[in-house]
Structure formats: structure tokens, C-alpha cells
Amino acid sequence: MVNIGIVGATGMVGRNFLKIMEERNFPVNKLYLFASSKSKGKTINFKNKEYIVEELKEDSFDKPIDIALFSAGGNISKKFAPIAKEKGIVVIDNSSAWRMEEWVPLIVPEVNPEAINKHKGIISNPNCSTIQSVIPLKPLDDEYGLKRVVFSTYQSVSGSGIGGLKDLEKGLNKPFHEKYPHPIAFNVIPHIDDFLDNGYTKEEIKMIEETKKILENNDIKITATTVRVPVKYGHAVSANIELKKDFELKDIFKLLENFPGIEVLDDPTNNIYPMPIMAEGKDKVYVGRIRRDFSLENGLNIWIVADNIRKGAATNTIQIAELLLKNRRL
Ligand code: 2RA
């Protein structure tokens, strides 16, 4: 049994931490919920017991916490994760604050579970669109070698939290935008996170750099275009892949079907392919539209869909916590 602290407990991902720990019967002993001052005093139910939300402060981590799950933005993680770490607490952080630090493992349990043994007190949960993409890429890299990957993403508004959902819902009846620079209803916006001087967005650079770190393969040539679409839950990713070796398509199917966490949905004659409406609320990564790219030597196209709040954030985090217990790395 372990004592759990949740930072950002009232947010969408924070609440899903609790839901998924209940579903997976994660062995929680004591539970401490932290959020901003505006949520102080709220109560949240976990396993039929009401817990009071406390305001996050520096002394929050004086409590007997074993693992702290963070989902409260990069600034909160930058300030408070080191404080928790100094108290001997293991932090699993959902923000991008620590992901590219050399000493911080970036973990997708189906892909690089062994990285858990390198942690020094802070572990980063990858970006949602990265998590769902590296899962099918891992067996392909191991078997054929990845030469180049072109990502095009179709990301739901829940990736932006409550504000994204609000822009979509309110925009259905009249032009409306508050969270996004333009209306998202009946539109797509090729702009997720801030633009950089090189013309990419931070979201695109996350996909590129995080994929290389998780696969431990800096030689892969990767580019990405990340796009917000008017969908509530579930990110979709088109991956155009150049492998180093030739392949038989039937072998690709078998490889993906047998990899943990993947469900292959690919029967175009019966209109069977992954879609966000089927991934919502689930933890699988759905792969389909698997086909050779005839414009390339050893070219392959795949289509990847997953629930960005569950497998893309909360479930992956709880799986990392389970890995900590299994490997006794607390
Ligand atoms: C998004 N991946 O979809 C980013 C952060 N969740 O907005």
C-alpha cells in the first residue's frame, strides 16, 4: 500500500487519476489532494470516501507521501516537483517541464519500462500524442529500423482542458473562441501550443524530440504537423514511416496485433478503422489504415487513435506508478 499525493486534483487529468486508480484497484493507503487556492475546501470522492482538496503549498510535501502525481502545468511542476523530490517523494509529472532533462526518464510502460530503474526522483509522462505514437513505432523500430517518420496529428479539444471543450461547445451555435485564437467549431487550427522561431510549434517539437528519447534512437528523421480538430475526446495521428528494411504487410499486421496495448482495427471493406468515438473512455491504442506507401522504398502508412486523457495522460501515469511498485523503485 502506498500514500499518494495528487497535484492538480480538480483538473480533467487529476480526476482521471482517481478514476483509473479505482478501476485498476491501485493500492492506495493515504490520499492527499492538492490544487490552487480557488479549489481549496472542495471535496472529491475516492473509493466511497470524501477527501478535502488542500491548497498546494511548499509544506504540502511534509505529509507522508510516497508518490506524487502532477498535472497542474509546467510552472507548478518546475517549482514544486523538486520540493517533493527533496522530501524523498517520487514525482510522476504530466507537464513538459522535465521531459527533456537528461536525468529524467520519459516513460511509456509498453515501450521503455526499463527506464524506470534510472529515475532520480522525477519521472515524466510524455505528451499525449507522443504516447499513442511511440507504441506502434516501437515494434517497427525493433524489427525493421525506423529511418524517417512524418507525423500529422488531429488533436481533440480536451487536450486543452475545460477551455477547449468550452470553445467547441459554445461555438456550435455561434462563432466563439476564448481558449483558441480562432473558432474551433466547424474548423481546424494548425496551431497547438506556442510558435517557435523555426516555424514549428512547441507541440510539434515535443513529438519529434520525445519520440527519439523514448525510443532511444536519435538517428530517426522526424517531422510533425499538429492540428486541433473539433472533436471532444481522442487524438488521431497519421504516421508516414520509412523503414530501413523491406517488409511483408502481413508481417506488419502480426507485429502490431501482438504488441501490448495495441488493438488493430483494419477492415476497410467493412468500414472498420480507428476513430476517436470508439477510443473515448478506453486505454487501448487503436491502429488501422495500415498500408504500404508506394511512393517510398520500404514506406508504410498507419493511423493511430487513442483517448488523450486516459492512455494519453492519466492511465499512462498510473501504469508508471504500477511499474514503480513492481520494480520496488520507491
Ligand atoms: C494538447 N498535447 O493536445 C497537448 C497537451 N495536452 O493540447
From TrEMBL:
It is an enzyme of class 1 (oxidoreductase). The active site is at 128 (acyl-thioester intermediate), 235 (proton acceptor). GO terms for molecular function: aspartate-semialdehyde dehydrogenase activity; NAD binding; NADP binding; protein dimerization activity. NADP(+) binds at residues 10-13, 38-39, 158-159, 175, 308. HAMAP family: ASADH. Catalyzes the NADPH-dependent formation of L-aspartate-semialdehyde (L-ASA) by the reductive dephosphorylation of L-aspartyl-4-phosphate. This is Aspartate-semialdehyde dehydrogenase.
